[in-house]
Amino acid sequence: MTTPVTHDPLEAARVLAAGGVVAFPTETVYGLGASLEHPTAVRRVFAIKGRPSGHPLIVHGADDAILDRYATSLPPEARALAIAFWPGPLTLVVPRATRVPDTVTGGRNTVGLRVPDQPLARAMLRALGSGVAAPSANLFGRTSPTTARHVMADLGEHVDLILDGGPCAVGLESTILDLSEAPATILRSGGISAEAIERVLGRPVIRTASGPARAPGMLAAHYAPRAPVIVTTRSELVNALAGMRASGQPTALIAASDVAPGDPSVTVLHPSGDRPEDFAHDLYRLLREADAGGATAILVVPPEGEGIAVAVRDRLARAASAARPDDR
Ligand code: AMP
Ligand code: MG
């Protein structure tokens, strides 16, 4: 049986309204969605992914009205950040309204809210009229999907419908900002930088998730392809390649186009451009290509600097730590 694929957001909304599970595109990655009106469908999302039930899901809505509908005692900064960045890749963690089911929040008294910047997703959410709880549409712990084909490969017939919106524009998960306690804390870096948030708030934010209480599901080992990921730098690359050659492992290298290993035994995969945004956009696709090409080790030279490069390095560090045997 093959999973139905559509380009029609209204069809996706109908399946969600009937209690189905729909994979849908956002500007970050593809989500695996269930309507908040159907807690049984939300439970199916956890089952399909193999995701532990304590890991909360982000609630997606068509516009800022989700703040009034799904949050309570709203921190004043939430409205300003929503105006500045929604639709866009910023998730706000705020005190939850009672109508948000426990299955979505893992029993917590907060909820993560976001308005995605993707025309099909917004049309679907607008037609549905209720929030959609959605994690990334991949198996738990693995690389997030950035095309409908990736979703099909990972979750195939377990999903009722895939809404195909083409490749995701950003390619990495949203920035998660916790506003439920002061000071505001970034639980996960993403498409909206800490600096951009600080400019709107007019004061500094904490940049790291501080332990499981504030960042459930932010495991060190996550976002991983099958082959171990080894993060290196331009200056260390020669040594890293020599190490791989000595081990005799089929190796892939993901790096900007001006990084040339000069080693025919290494499969080189370049992002489609040299900006950090291009690296973010193509990273998950290239990790999948490295796996599919049979590499048993993946060397990566990530971009330097601030902005989305921070999120690229964050995901690669997690993918690399997933590969360490002592983390399994
Ligand atoms: P995913 O959609 O798979 O990228 O994961 C969503 C992540 O959002 C979770 O693993 C949590 O870390 C985070 N998240 C969602 N809701 C909350 C919340 N209420 N409090 C803290 N973190 C949250
Ligand atoms: Mg995920």
Characterise this structure.
The protein is an alpha/beta fold. It has two domains: 5-201, DHBP synthase (Alpha-Beta Complex), CATH 3.90.870; 229-327, Rossmann fold. The protein has eleven helices and 14 strands. The protein has helices at 9-17, 39-49, 65-70, 76-85, 102-105, 119-128, 148-155, 194-201, 237-247, 276-292, 308-322, and strands at 5-6, 22-24, 31-35, 58-60, 90-95, 110-114, 132-134, 161-163, 175-178, 185-188, 229-231, 251-254, 266-269, 297-300. The strands form two sheets. It has a ten-stranded mixed beta sheet with strand order 1-8-2-3-7-4-6-5-9-10, with helices on both faces. α1 packs across α6 and α10 runs parallel beside α11 (308-322). The longest helix has 17 residues, at 276-292. It is globular and about 60 Å long. The model is unreliable at 323-328 (pLDDT under 50). Adenosine monophosphate is lined by residues 55-56, 58, 93, 105, 108, 110-112, 135-136, 173, 176, 187, 215-218.
Short note summarizing the structure:
By secondary structure, the chain is an alpha/beta fold.
